[in-house]
Write a sequence for this structure.
């Protein structure tokens, strides 16, 4: 099957390409290298089943010409800004890279009659739920970050395109995903800070922010397993049942870096930064009932990623 | 108070401007005349409390320069495509005129610290609910039109901007609004068809599509009444309890045009066109409890509008 991976040079997208190629597909990747990198897809150079276009997915005319040339049967849409703190300072990043990419992809799917879509959504569509477990049917969808707002907006316009054009759409809402090729986030920050000053560590908030961290291999496995869906929009929360606090991450990083008795300085307050959701619990009943569970716990995913981050930079 | 009415040359916007001027405000109107018209605001020419900019609200730089010059205290955002059938053929209309206008307005509000927003949303955010009454807390928001999708996307990004910038936002979700200055829709279509051929009338669908039609004066009254809200996003369904079927509208139009015994030809099927929601019922408990009710029933609003449509064209 010829498939498009939009945002395929990104962290998650590049792993998905590896899985799709292993599965025997012809893979076309479009990426503007805004967050994705050449490094992430360098190992695919020369693979006859892989084609790369450096292009901005929010430029409709460029995208149209690629859709006209390649005849996709499936679009995996993972193109988005993924740096929530960056867009907190400059919201138009989400307009351009998260929402506009979605609209342009949908419009090209409509024009070229591509019927199958996977969309990478996020736990951030739920907003602050005050520690309540959130399931797919939660009534209140009130994003508090521009990222979550643009992703929920993407889901909304996908709903319309799906109905109007008889699409089969799989939407995964997932929390923090970590693993090889990760480029930013708290693990990176801690490793970097401890390399610069191994005598102490400053932690944003009170360190009690707890989130489920999911390994990218588990996520990609779930995409591959569930990618064929009936007509309409199928939404799953995807994640792990366990959570890891920021303080626990700091301990794991110190341990893996062989640093002991490092004093932690907390900046205080509930959240790390405005738009961050400090406590988050996911109801995963739907995807568990469908026969899938993550293979790694949140702590295991963190530990594995910390090792890779430390290893890569040595 | 100096206020911006975005899309103020449109059907609803122009009536809102009249009310805001009567209330003693300084009103700035921005409109690109995509759907709005000079006719709708001609009566305001020369009013020292009224300023007009012909500008596209999706052009951020233009909008920024207006925000820099005028110092708004309140933004009423009614700029959007309102022709759902037009965007069903060309979805990018909604990207440009409905979603992008919202994002650019919010970004300018952020830059210039404007804290108060009214947003005109729609019953179309709910999608097809199979005749079930929809209230503001309905879990399933599954728009089936590009218009509904772009409006729900607007609500989603408003949620994020409201949280990040401490905005006070009032969102009204309203169904079909009719009254003076209306420019399109079923009443217009019937009057036009009967003027061209007063011996018969073709009706899309089976004529049983029933919707609540609300008079624009009632809607504007509700905006004026509820426009001051606490921090955060306050959402109301706004409408009338009664509904009018398409066949009933045809009867009212014939009666007002003094045409009797006109045969109606039905094209058949449930909905008039794809993306139309054929049966729609609104739960209005929240706004009724807050002390507001529409003064005109759906049939009364239709009858009043039919008279005006016929009168204006004579």
């Amino acid at each position: 099957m010829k498939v498009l991976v939009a945002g395929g040079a990104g962290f998650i997208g590049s792993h998905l390409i590896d899985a799709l190629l292993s599965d025997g597909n012809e893979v076309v990747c479009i990426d503007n290298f805004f967050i994705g990198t050449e490094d992430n897809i360098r190992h695919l150079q020369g693979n006859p089943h892989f084609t790369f276009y450096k292009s901005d997915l929010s430029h409709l005319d460029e995208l149209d010409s690629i859709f006209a040339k390649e005849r996709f049967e499936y679009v995996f849409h993972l193109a988005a800004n993924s740096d929530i703190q960056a867009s907190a300072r400059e919201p138009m990043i989400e307009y351009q890279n998260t929402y506009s990419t979605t609209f342009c992809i949908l419009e090209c799917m409509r024009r070229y009659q591509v019927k199958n879509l996977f969309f990478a959504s996020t736990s951030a569509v739920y907003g602050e739920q005050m520690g309540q477990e959130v399931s797919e049917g939660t009534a209140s969808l009130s994003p508090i970050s521009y990222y979550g707002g643009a992703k929920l907006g993407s889901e909304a316009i996908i709903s319309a395109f799906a109905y109007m054009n008889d699409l089969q759409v799989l939407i995964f809402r997932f929390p923090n995903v970590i693993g090889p090729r990760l480029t930013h986030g708290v693990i990176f920050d801690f490793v970097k800070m401890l390399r610069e000053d191994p005598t102490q560590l400053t932690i944003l908030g009170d360190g009690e922010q707890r989130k489920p961290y999911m390994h990218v291999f588990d996520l990609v496995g779930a995409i591959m397993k569930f990618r064929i869906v009936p007509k309409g929009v199928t939404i799953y929360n995807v994640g792990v049942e366990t959570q890891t606090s920021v303080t626990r991450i700091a301990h794991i990083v110190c341990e893996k870096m062989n640093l002991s008795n490092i004093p932690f300085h907390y900046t205080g307050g509930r959240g790390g930064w405005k738009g961050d959701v400090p406590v988050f619990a996911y109801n995963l009943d739907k995807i568990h009932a469908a026969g899938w569970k993550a293979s790694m716990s949140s702590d295991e995913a963190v530990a594995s990623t910390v090792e890779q981050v430390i290893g890569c930079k040595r």
